Amino acid sequence: MTEVRVPTLGESVTEATVATWFKKPGDAVQADEMLCELETDKVTVEVPAPTAGTLGEIIAAEGETVGVDALLATINAGEAAAAAPKAAAAPAAAASAAAVDVMVPTLGESVTEATVSTWFKQVGDTVAQDEMLCELETDKVSVEVPSPAAGVLTEIIAAEGATVDASAKLGVISSGEGATAAAAPAAAPAPAQAAATAGAKNAPSAEKMMAEKGLDANAVAGTGKDGRIMKEDVMKAAASAGSAAAAAPAPAAQAPRAPVSADDAAREERVKMTRLRQTIARRLKEAQNTAAMLTTYNEVDMTAVMELRNQYKGEFEKKHGVRLGFMSFFTKACVHALKEVPEVNAEIDGTDVVYKNFVHMGIAAGTPTGLVVPVIRDVDQMSFAGIEKAIGEKGRRARDGKLSMAEMQGGTFTISNGGVYGSLMSSPILNPPQSGILGMHKIQDRPMAINGQVVIRPMMYLALSYDHRIVDGKGAVTFLVRVKEALEDPQRLLMDL
Predict the structure, then answer these.
(1) Using CA atoms, how far apart are residues 313 and 307, in angstroms rounded to an integer?
(2) How far is CA 17 from the centre of its chain?
(3) Does a cis peptide bond (omega within 30 degrees of 0) precede residue 342?
(4) Mean pLDDT on 28-49
(5) pTM of the model as a whole
(6) Closest of 143, 34, 163, 35 to residue 99, by C-alpha
(7) Which residues pair with 53 in a beta bridge?
(8) Three-state secondary structure call for residue 117
């Protein structure tokens, strides 16, 4: 006799509720076949059979609360053979195939869900270990999901467009020698299996909570096995309903769409916003609603920087293996100015002002899916070459969608270069909770009056948007003047003037 016990539930989780038993006493079970499902405060845990045999006694019934390592049931080993004729025998090769779950990988700090954007494989396809199976999209980054084993993709659980949590199962791979042979027969029973499980019961705790909150089961999206509604699904639905109710009396944030003729409607194309674009829209609007945002402008003569760059760019690239651009000069100039006006590098936390004795510089980068802001940490400790290398590396990773969440968090100040797209002047929007962002623009030859003479100089408009709750006008203007002075006379950076 083999005991079936509660598996490890996760850090600090000590108990769970038995949600559903998939087998009854006397049923034949195979090794690793799902016996029951447990529900904790945060996740759902499936309990596989530790061995093949016949399910004996169920110790913990559905709805019971059990602790870690508690006895759930017993399996009588060696008795599965008698029940084997009840099921169609799979090819002998299939016996050597093992089911491997494809799970959502780590998404990053504070990221709890993602959307399945693309499946690169279909059910029945052969896959190699570490081959890309699908791509997930979170609020900020795309995450590729590699195959955990070589074999055949036998089931896709989360289809394209589905939203999954950080611990969800995406699919199943049949690995081992019999995987290929088992793939085709495995797909056939799917309709019958789906019909058998269509009436699967929701988690008891979910049923109780829906009754308490007066929610209809049809209004709750289930994320459990076969669409079963779990406790966390009810909590999420209740929170959404509460948010909608609270927001109902407020005026609509978006103006109603203008009437469209039938002819025009037939020529329109409606595309759902990506999660990244939705997050960008939400954060930018939050910044406008939260901060007392103001922008001050100045202009800088780029002659000195351009001459210095032209003089040393060949030697610089030969020695450091990276081109000398303008961004390292602007980054150095901002670091220099932030030392004199530290409130621009600070943030508000409740009724406190948090001053940062370091500079983690965000460098805004445009990508095919939207604007992202990778962060270069401790940029105040870096050389020109180190800054240029970091900017180049982060930019490539941003365009390829390879940035992690950690690489886009913790910035204290941001630089946005709209000039690369031809912008002559604009007002950048703050990147909360930061208190300042510098907007760079196009370098344009303009006539300037210098020492009583009209001369043509390469000029650039600069814009500093800042949070007026923490940064006064004097501080903002001083910051921008210091940036201007450092760029027009780069030697000041060396002399710390």
Answers:
(1) 10
(2) 30
(3) no
(4) 81
(5) 0.51
(6) 34
(7) 29, 77
(8) strand
Model confidence pLDDT, tens digit, residues 213-239: 777 777 787 776 567 777 767 777 777
- Helix (H) or strand (E) holding 155, with range, is strand 151-156
Tokens of 318: 């030969």
72 and 98 in a single domain? The answer is no
Query: Residue 217's domain is classified under what CATH number?
Result: 4.10.320.10
The Cα 359–Cα 381 span in angstroms is 9
Q: Report the DSSP pairing between strands 293-301 and 352-354.
A: unpaired
**410 in the same domain as 296:** yes
User: How many residues can be counted in the chain?
Assistant: 497
Same domain for 228 and 127, yes or no, is: no
Q: Are residues 281 and 313 in the same domain?
A: yes
Q: Active-site positions?
A: 468, 472
Task: Please name the residue that has the structure tokens 């948007």.
Answer: 465
φ, ψ for residue 217, nearest 5 deg: -60, -30
CB-based contacts of 457, cutoff 8 Å, min separation 6:
301, 302, 303, 445, 446, 448, 450
Find the angle CA(299)-CA(393)-CA(427) to the nearest 5 degrees: 30
Report the largest interatomic distance among the alpha carbons of the chain, rounded to a whole angstrom: 105
User: 29 phi and psi, to 5 degrees?
Assistant: -130, 150
